[in-house]
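Hi V.,

Quick status before I head out on leave. The structure for the redesign project is tokenized and pasted below; the design run finished overnight.
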């Protein structure tokens, strides 16, 4: 087996065992945010993992207020974390070598343009798991991924994530009625897609 393939396989094993640098970075983030009493929640692919759809990812998305992100950076930049570049809202865990992407409360998913679905306050949608890390709720994750997939054609992975989350969580078609009406019809479309068995 070529070295590069072996390296990828080992990284995937560590990821699915919860021992990867990504998981360590989330623990470090949770500790730092708790230290500053900053509400935040893990979103994106790691939230999808928390809700049953297991897939690897190279970074961590966090839901956070703009002013809290500034407070975090003022305290921790240069002490284990660095900006991705000057002026970026995103940053990197320099200890774990993991990029952290900030989703700012009040901003919009997908194309970034105003729409009925915006990034919500983390404390309103967070569910704290056994490891003490807050993840956004399944409902919120679906709404954000649907809104993103609907308005950003270059992000088809978001809609695939929705299909997989529907399957793994055995969501019924009428789950659409619990979602923001803006994304309800798209959820129904993805629900029917999720019923297709490739076998």
């Amino acid at each position: 087996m070529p070295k590069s393939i072996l390296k990828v396989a080992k990284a995937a094993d560590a990821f699915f065992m919860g021992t990867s640098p990504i998981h360590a970075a989330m623990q470090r983030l949770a500790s730092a945010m708790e230290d500053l009493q900053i509400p935040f929640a893990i979103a994106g692919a790691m939230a999808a993992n928390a809700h049953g759809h297991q897939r690897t990812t190279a970074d961590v998305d966090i839901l956070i207020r703009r002013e809290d992100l500034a407070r975090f950076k003022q305290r921790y930049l240069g002490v284990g974390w660095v900006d991705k570049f000057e002026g970026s809202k995103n940053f990197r865990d320099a200890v774990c070598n993991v990029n952290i992407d900030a989703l700012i409360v009040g901003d919009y998913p997908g194309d970034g343009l105003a729409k009925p679905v915006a990034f919500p306050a983390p404390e309103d949608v967070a569910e704290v798991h056994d490891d003490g890390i807050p993840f956004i709720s399944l409902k919120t994750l679906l709404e954000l991924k649907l809104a993103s997939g609907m308005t950003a054609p270059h992000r088809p992975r978001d809609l695939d994530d929705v299909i997989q989350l529907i399957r793994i969580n055995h969501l019924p078609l009428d789950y659409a009625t619990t979602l923001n009406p803006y994304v309800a019809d798209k959820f129904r479309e993805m629900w029917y897609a999720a019923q297709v068995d490739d076998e």
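Above is the designed sequence. The mean pLDDT is 91.

G. will cover questions while I'm gone.

Best,
W.
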